[in-house]
Amino acid sequence: MTNRLTTAPTEEPISLAEMRLQIGITGNDDTARDAVISSRITSARQWAEKHTQRAFVTQTWTYYASVFTDYFDLKLDLQSVTSVKYIDSDGVLKTLDSSSYKVDLVNSRVYLAYGESWPTVRNEVNAIQVEHISGYGLAETVPEQIKEAIKFTVGHWENYQSTIEGAERITTIPYAVTQLLAPYVDLRSVF
Question: Which sequence spans correspond to the domains of the chain?
């Protein structure tokens, strides 16, 4: 069982202008590091999303499984389920009627509707595909703690750029970042 990104977000939780201000670049004509900073914003967001196992800005994911179970835990924060597809016993990819399952937006799950039964699937890896849209919405709806964690990470990378270029690698994320993100970590798979 795994989630795979289908459509990336169209914006980052923090803008280049916000990050420039955070690290002290105030001159509008000082754009030499803008491409690097923008890349680091994306990298920091991706790291934080992987760490928390959640989507921040609206994006589309596909959850893959080999068998139907009582429910599927989808990427947090679930906005909607686009489709549930499966490979039937004849090897044909079919779309399950949406009346056969229920979407739980509170717990970011999809589960079997009352009185329904899952169809028979072919004994094949990734025979089930649940396409869903997750994330808080637009950048301005992402919680401030998450935005601060991203800013802190990018600022950390910027402050240690000369160390990185000097062949010494920074291999840890600051503890403050993991503390900021702790309330947002998806613990469903732990229990």
Answer: 17-53+142-184, 59-134
